[in-house]
Amino acid sequence: MKSIWIGMLVLLLLSACGTATQSTSQSSKSKENGTTPKKEKTVTVMLDWVPNTNHTGLYVAQQKGYFKDEGLNVKIVTPGKSSAVQVVGAGKAEFGISSEEYITQARATGVPVVSIAAILQHNTSGFASPKSKQIARPKDFIGKTYGGWGTPMENAFIKTVMEADGVEVNQVEDKVNIVNIGEADFFTATKRNIDFAWVYYGWTGIEAQLRDVQLNMIYLKDIAPVLDYYTPTIITSEALIDEDPDTVKKFMRAVSKGYAYAIEHPDEAADILIKATPESDEALIRASQKWMSQRYQADAEQWGYQKKKTWVDFTNWMYEHQLIEKKIDATKAFTNEFLPEPAQ
């Protein structure tokens, strides 16, 4: 009951932030120039986790004034008991950070959220273990202990990569000891009874480098190309796309400039994120930002671009592994229409 009330409080607070309302704040540029101030539209973007280098482009756009240039007053909030998919789907925030698997699950249950940009062009997650655990390939998972969140998705990942490595798997639990460790720290858990875990290299992998912990990292995309799905992505709702596409365009124009800056200026972008999140680990942000800056756009024609094949193939994989109860039209789960024209 307590969690339900906390969730309701989060939604009420977001509503109070002025969702989809016109702000009367004045732009600093107008004050300086003596011109008539523009009315800014206040919108909220909910993150998927604590602020980190997945989100740098948002903080750059805010600090460099790209949002203000588009007439937007953007509030960046961290999630409470409700996820970004739930909040954006309910119309309590205009934008959010999520990923392809959660968007697909949401749409399969009738939550009308849409991915409008891929923050990273390729999946940088995988199964990590200290080298001392001697897990160099999926076959080595046999008899080991996996520490995770206890989700069916993780079991499906393990099954898929083990089968790709030639292991016959009926039930993952027959091959691997699965332990729910929730939000336990990777480094603490693997010093105890956990042999491997699912991590994102751009954060935990980089932290291992800084701690001088030697890892074996098995990227999902390297073992099974179908698992090279989009994570994380920027989302909005079908309602906002239908009713106010101009705001979505303005938001994405500013955000695209933010990530372009982060790609070209990783050191300065790290400074901006550190300033916005002074409680964070400064050395980790700087090292992670350098690694991530090479992967935001990667081999795509422009930052944020999403391929139809990636969405269709991964949606089919989720259905085949019973992670969604019904098939969805994957082509409606994403769009590239709000990305600005690529620079010539």
Keywords:
single chain, 344 residues, alpha/beta, 6-stranded mixed beta sheet, 5-stranded mixed beta sheet, 16 helices, 11 strands, globular, disordered N terminus
Question: What report would you give on this structure?
Answer:
By secondary structure, the protein is an alpha/beta fold. Helix content is 43%, strand content 16%. It has 16 helices and eleven strands. The strands form two sheets. Strands 1, 2, 3, 4, 5 and 11 form a six-stranded mixed β-sheet that branches. Helix 3 crosses helix 14 (266-276) and helix 14 (266-276) packs across helix 15 (282-293). The radius of gyration is 21 Å and the shape is globular. 43% of the residues are buried. Residues 1-30 have low confidence and may be disordered.
Helix content: 40-55%
User: How would the global form be characterised?
Assistant: globular
Number of strands: 11
Radius of gyration computed on alpha carbons = 21 Å
Structural class: alpha/beta
Query: How many H/I helices?
Result: 16
Give the SSE order as H and E letters.
HEHEHHEHEHEEEHHEHEHEHEHHHHH
Model regions low in confidence, pLDDT < 50 over at least 5 residues? 1-30
State the distance separating the first and last CA atoms.
Answer: 55 Å
